[in-house]
Amino acid sequence: MKFLFDFFPILLFFGVFKLGEANRQEAFALVSHYMSGLIAGGAVKAEQAPIMLATVVVILATLAQIAYVKLRGRKVDGMLWVSFAVIALFGGATIYFHDENFIKWKPTILYWVFALALFVAQFGFRKNLMRQVMEQTIKLPEAVWTRVALSWMSFFFVLGLLNLFVAFVVFKNDTSAWVSFKLFGITGIFFVFIIGQTLFLSKYIQEEA
To answer: Averaged over 70-83, what is the pLDDT?
Structure first.
């Protein structure tokens, strides 16, 4: 259930972009009518409208997530606050400057913030954030917890690089392809990595059982 909750803004971003791309004139009319005050110069090109709409929707969706958690009387996860700050900053820049390059940088910055947080906590404060998240479900030797943290640091760092490579090299002039990669490619990579982690940790789960 939490996975679907976390995945919600990404799905909306993809859906709104593809819908706007399929109905470009309608998307252009919506952006021109409702978002002109948010855009430098007050206007965008018709081909820019889908990414503008998708960006404003993903900002609102992330804000809605925070509001939902607050209304339920729960503490907002730190990662959700970071995600909102990054999407608000880079999404806002995308809209104001009507430049899709900002939103393409957003995943990379977010992944690198996560990697940096893990690194600083581990080596600056001797706190293993992955252990804090997972310790209630699995018990591991200290050395293994360190390997888990290092693997997630490396994963987020490499994933950030991969996003830049795909966005600005592989699909340099194809925002639609990058949006599809963002949903299907990155999600698939996450699944493969998590499966790999599960296989790596399975022997410790078996030993504990």
So the answer is: 93
Q: Of 60, 49, 48, 114, whose CA–CA distance to 91 is shortest?
A: 60
- The Cα–Cα gap between 137 and 2 comes to 16
CA angle 137, 122, 117 (to 5 degrees): 90
Q: What angle do CA 125, 129, 130 make, to 5 degrees?
A: 145
pLDDT of residue 135: 85
Contact of 31 with 56, CB cutoff 8 Å: no
Mean predicted lDDT score pLDDT of the chain: 93
For residue 44, give the nearest of 60, 33, 56 by alpha carbon.
33
In sequence order, which ranges of the chain are alpha helices (DSSP H)? Answer: 2-22, 24-34, 49-71, 78-96, 101-124, 129-134, 142-165, 175-180, 186-208
Tell me the CA distances in angstroms from 19 to 38, 98, 105, 152, one per residue in order: 22, 19, 22, 34
The model carries a pTM of: 0.91
CB 146, CB 180: distance < 8 Å: no
Query: Is 83 in a helix, a strand, or coil?
Result: helix
Residue-level pLDDT at 209: 47
What is the C-alpha to C-alpha distance for residues 117 and 101, in angstroms, rounded to an integer? 25
pLDDT digits (tens, 9 = 90+) for 160-173: 999 999 999 999 99
